[in-house]
Amino acid sequence: MGNSDTDSTTSESDSSSELDVGSKRFNPLKALYSAKLKVPVPKALLHDNVSTLEGKQLTLGGFTEKFDEARIRQIRASQNKPKLAENEMPQRRFLPEQGPVTRVRSIRHTKNIFIRLEKGFEGPLGQLQRWMEDRNRVRVSIRKQKGVRGHVSGVLELFDKHWNLALSDVCETWTRRKYRYSENRQHPDSMEAPRDCSERLRRLGIVLPELKVRPADGKKNVIITRKVPQLLVKGEMVVLVTLEPGEPQASTSKGTK
């Protein structure tokens, strides 16, 4: 008898502790279906879940604030956006990760010859840059298929790492044969007499540079000179770049290409 009374007392205490909200052994499932459950605060407000209570307390400013349903409605009403007008279209609200993608320019479009010149060159290209900044006249030897064709002299305006040169106030000098021996395979009757097209070119606004021819050392060649305002020399045609004879040369100058 004593053991049975002890077991019944223990089971009753365990059952009451499982229905006690403040107990560590509280069983919510058993409390949900038990008729013996006693609510600690009978006038406590009912909420759908814990998240609802947490959201309302955070609206008030935290769990340290006193719960006030009227104040919650007032705060939420002030936070609500005004209603749209009749003809006003709603605007879509994007999250930060849903916003427009910022376009980053590739390095290819941020590098150009002017930025490269600001950084400066070293070696022969550095000497070219000093001549360009000092506005010195340079002489550029030009190649042909076999050997050197001639040279051009002018003020260096711009260049790149491939030795493409932009010159201004250019004087071009080259050598060619005095007489060009070529076989004329056309029938004499089909050939037209040569015509002077200088007037037609002048009407079109095209002015050809004047050529000055002078004899060379030998009898077979002549030296031709012409002046043009601007000239672009491709890097593959450059043989040598030096200062024009008669130009003052700085002590730091070095040979180029």
From TrEMBL:
InterPro entries: Lsm11, Lsm11_M, LSM_dom_sf, Sm_dom_euk/arc. Residues 130-243 form the Sm domain. GO terms for biological process: mRNA 3'-end processing by stem-loop binding and cleavage. Pfam families: LSM. GO terms for molecular function: U7 snRNA binding. One of its GO terms (cellular component) is U7 snRNP. CDD domains: LSm11_M (cd01739). Transmembrane segments: none annotated. Residues 1-21 are annotated as: Disordered. Residues 1-18 have a biased composition (Low complexity). This is Sm domain-containing protein. It comes from Anopheles merus.
